[in-house]
Amino acid sequence: MTCILLILLVPLSSSFLCSKGCSSCMADYTCNTTCSDTFDDDHTCNLCKWSSPSALNPEAYLMNSEGQCLKSNSILSKNRWMPDDQYIQEIFPNIPTPILLDLNTPLDYSFCRYPMKYRVGKWFKLNMTPIKNNYMYAIVDKNRDDVSMSMDITNSKRDAKSGNCMAHTSSPMSSRNVIIKGNFFHSDYVNNGTQEIVFTFFISTDTVKTINATLTVTFSVFQLKDNTTIISQKETDEMVKNLSIVREVKYSFDTIGIYYYPTCMPTFLSKIVIFTITFDANYSLLLSTKRSNKLNYFLLNKIIFTNDSLIALCERLWSGSKVSTLESEQEGILANIQGAKNERKFSLFTQDYYSDVLFTYQVICPNHCNAENGQGECVTSEAKCVCKSGYGGDDCHLLCYYHDNWQVKDHDDLCYFGSNGCDQYCKCESGYTLQNNLCVSNYCHDDNKLDIEECKRSEYGCAQNCYCDTANGFFFNNTSFKCQSINCGNNKIDQVHWGTKSLKDEECDGGVNCNDQCLCIKGYITNPEETTSCKLKSIGGGAIAGIVIGGIVFVVILITIIITVILLVLNYKQIDIEVFREQQPTYYYYINGSVNCEPNKESKFEVDPEQLDFGNSTSATAIMDTRYENIQVKNRSRNKYMMVIFHTPNTPKYVFHFDPQVAIMRPRASGYVTCYMTLYCTTKLKGMKIPYTVWFSHSRGTLNEIALLLKDKNFETWNNSDQRNMDKLSKSVLKKYHHNLILATDAASSTHIDMDELSISEKPIAEGAMGRVYMGSYRSVAVAVKQFRWEKLDEDEVAELKKNVVAECEMMAKLRNPFIASYIGSVTYIPQVSMVIQFFILGSLGEYLRQEKEDYVKMPYKLKVRMLFDTSRGMQFLHENRIMHLDLKPDNLLVNSLDCNSACTIKITDFGTSRFKKKSITNSEDKGLGTPIYAAPETFKDEYTFAGDVYSFAITAWELYYQVEPYAQLKSIFDIKRHVEEGKRLSFDQNIPTLYKNMIMECWRADPKDRPSFDQVCNSIVKIDEDVNNHLEEGNQNEKIVEIVNKRTDRIQKQINSISE
């Protein structure tokens, strides 16, 4: 009887989490059919159908408590943004007004914005004319905490075109109160009672449930007392001990805050949150909201209190973004707060009443960087002290060791500052011991080495601290990963010594059988006839005899091992794990006449466990990891066969493979089914249900026929013929049950993105040989999505390219640098592989350089130099990490700011063709990388080196200065190739600064070995920057830049909004 009741009460389960508006899903909340008529057909089917109030016969759709969207024609009729007075109840101060919202309440829409237009709500009005006290406290007390309610207030008049959303707040599910409080009149307002002022309220909810509530409005003298956060002296004193500590506070302005006209901006009605800071110390507190993406217009204002009353003084104001919007990195406030004796109140305020703000604070600049002694200064943008020469550490103290010289007298027990394991005070860190002014790790001491160390101390050229002995002329060779003498390679035998080793000669140098360290390769010794080379070491007679005997013994042992392995293989059942990573057939989830029942004695079957955690009960499951769990299945029937079918989800996001998928068991039998789980992206997993069906019959053959009938069928392919066959077979089926396995683990966080979390624009914003780039949104963050094009490739080529792209994505995930565009993740589990990176509203540098471009602007010379400097620093970082770009050009340089004083103007992107390199690429598989205009001459011969990026940088620098297309006079790519191979280059005029010109000419030298590294390029640009003031142009382009940036920002913001809608 229990099972019969359950089937009436419990809805049919599905393989995926699916909304009520979808009949079946291809993934969690991703419908593989169209949504129901009452739902918005967006493939998620989570929102009710949108309704237009301007329609002739408007219809409204609202969700009930069961998640179903109900159609309603009970809509409040109105000709303006607010209804007629008969539908608006007048309320009075201090008098509670009852509110009833239920099925009979007409639907209406508010003057504030909501995802769904229509809501269940009622209107109220309050005459503010006789009110003398400005501080209003409006509260709605509701009788239940399983619904969310909202309160909106406007002061707009009836004849206004639309209502102004003056105030808005919502209650979280757990709260029974909806509160709006604050002062809605600016400081200069005087209520003389002659002007009629009416506040209109709309109290509403987004669900159809019966709610009893009361609305009460009171007034008092305005005082700001609400503290959301207190930062105390005790807390900051603890934080200064570890400057890496960053505390976070999340403010949700949709549910909290006070309305107020800030004294710094008396016409700016805002919603504010207040916090207290109390500390008086010789360090600073850095407050920031930069980690949120919705802070373009947030401000921070300091408020002064005396005797618990507000004094209308504007002491300091911090803006979250510049008025010119030039510095996009300044979105969100960044405030340096120094200590003070008195308690101070601060407020964070905004006009966006719906935003969530992540507020962070940290201690910076201890001892105020010893600025009073001229030792350094506190730089807010870098959140640290910037020290003068000879000073350093967290507080710019005198360094004990600087530029290979001790700056203190007693230094026997001190380590060299800057060496590994040595802290800012020349003391060895934990895990290190001091030896000869070097800090030696425990691993190094035992003749091992840490991953960050370069060598073992017993190895050639290695110092006592397991780093190459630079003091004695050794350096770390990034190709051989060994220590090498600076004299090695001069074809001379030099004397060398390192660490505690005595002086000795090199074994060889540049000759035959000599390695990169000037050591003879194994089995060779110095050739006395030609000391720069090595010869084969001779073997004595005794050694030869030993080798022969040892060889015979080895052969005997090897034959024994081979025979043993063969015997083991013959008796071993090999298991290919890849089989369990493959999707299994779909079995139609046929539950007509079935009972939804948990395994128990009455149902005569057991499936244990039903909660599957795959051994990860306390941790998430890693992506690409295949895990398994054994499930015991028992048939407790005495005389009936039992069949269990596991209906696996069919989605590329993950694979659940059951071995076996269909299990038929004789009476009173038991066995095990193994479930293998492989995840291919970070997606919602916990709580997901995997259904299974249980069939009982006296005939094993009948159960086999049913399994065969259901195989490779689904709801859409199941036809009348199948149903007739099932009806016949069902006559021999005695009982049918269905239930679910439930996942008790979740997918670990990773850069493998779930495609369903990406919203992508219909049209690409850029195209190239490798693919198309789209604007998108990922978890409310604007992103750029690169989709690789490989339509014309065969299956093997696609597999190989996908492998390369995945490797590239894994490499990019490890890169973190201010001048490299942030990598967010990639979608690799479907054929259309996508790479997701940070989106920049200002676009690429190439969009500003040509006159035919919409956003063309004549850039100031100083800005050009700054852009080159940031590009060179980004490339310096890539090359230090053994990464070539191979397609460096303006289109792959994203503009972070058009302000030459910005901390970062350029971020490098598009590593679609980059590779990790230890040596030059010579294989034909990578032919044709890059863009021909910017390609170095050696690339035409399929030779790719780090110097090739330097050449591309030179062409980019030329184009940036002149802002015209390189080689515009040449007709084809072949002409450009011939021009470059002949040693010709782009021409210069007389106006280009000499230092700028010389840098370009150095970078595009014909021989790659003659080109400078990006370390040297950075140094050159520093000198160019020092000379900038001698080459300033006439006129001011700042206004033009501001105009272009504002237009572009508005245009792009509209596109972003259209994607998010």
From TrEMBL:
Cysteines joined through disulfide linkages: C387-C396
Transmembrane found in the keyword field: yes
Signal peptide: 1-15
Keywords associated with the record: Disulfide bond, EGF-like domain, Kinase, Membrane, Signal, Transferase, Transmembrane, Transmembrane helix
Protein kinase domain span: 759-1028
Enzyme Commission no: 2.7.11.25
Keyword Transmembrane: yes
Annotated TM spans: 543-570, 820-841
Enzyme class per UniProt: transferase
UniProt name for this protein: Serine-threonine protein kinase, putative
Species lineage: Eukaryota, Amoebozoa, Evosea, Archamoebae, Mastigamoebida
